[in-house]
Amino acid sequence: GPDINISFPSDLLKEVQFDQHDFDRKLNYYAPALVALSTGSPFVNGKLWQWEFGKYGKSFRTHKRSIIAPVVEYHGGEENRIEFKPLDMSPYLGDFRVQFLLVIALVVDRDLIGRCDRACRIYELGNVAKFGLDYAPAVHKLTALIREAEAILPRIGFDIAPLEIAKKRIKDKLTVADELIDLYMKDRSMENCLQFLANIYE
Prior knowledge:
This protein has helices at 10-15, 20-38, 60-65, 93-108, 118-131, 136-152, 163-172, 176-187, 190-198; strands at 4-7, 43-44, 47-48, 50-52, 55-56, 72-75, 81-84. α4 (93-108) packs across α6. The chain is globular. By secondary structure, the protein is mainly alpha-helical. β2 and β3 form a beta hairpin. The chain contains nine helices and seven strands, in the order βααββββαββαααααα.
């Protein structure tokens, strides 16, 4: 998966009263929602990940990493760089624009009130790995985050047009994982799935 790296001006962090401990709790709450939007690794051992008979998961990567891997790393000595780590890789540049905007919103928006602990995050990531955007609690949080991002990001100079990509994915319940699952189910061909990804130039 990609690591989303963003550096923040010190005066901005001071203005929003950034607190690392509090931000960790905020990420515990909202990170699974961002992961649900990014789910895109439904394969294991050359075939679809079947977490229960007849039920295909959306992110085997999330299933494996959610218990042991960190969501974020801080690099305060590198111009306040925050490294957001749990997302699946997307072949679409538009998805990266969405991810950057939503991570920035998480940092600067003080009106996002959701907080929880690590155990809550792990539990929700387990469900996100299986269900993606079919997991209603994640969609609820994601919708709230997008709404706040649309309100605050223009105030600090960001174009929020890419957020329409996220809203469409939510409406259609269609992630990269869903695209790949649908394609694989047509002829059980990993080659066709890889060719599909290779041919995306967006």
